[in-house]
Write a structure and sequence with these properties.
The chain is α+β, with helices and mostly antiparallel strands. About 40% of the residues lie in helices and about 20% in strands. It has helices at about 40-50, 55-65; strands at about 5, 15-20, 30. The longest helix has 15 residues, at about 40-50. It is flat. It starts with 5 loop residues before the first strand and ends with a helix. InterPro entries: GrpB/CoaE, NT_sf. This is GrpB family protein.
Length: about 70
Amino acid sequence: MARTATSRGENGIAGRRYDIKGNDNRTHHVHVFTAGSEQAIRHLAFRDYLRKHHGVAQQYAETAEACR
């Protein structure tokens, strides 16, 4: 099977593996952490916060889009 993602290694966060698909026209990104690691917990907490606070999530999405 051909590899269709590009590995970015830790990409600035120790212990993480980060892969993307699509490069400039990215369609997917995958963060892989050791279960229960401090970084995994932090990322999941941020995700959960955005899910519960729709206005903040919208602002975050707009800011992220403007930075592209």
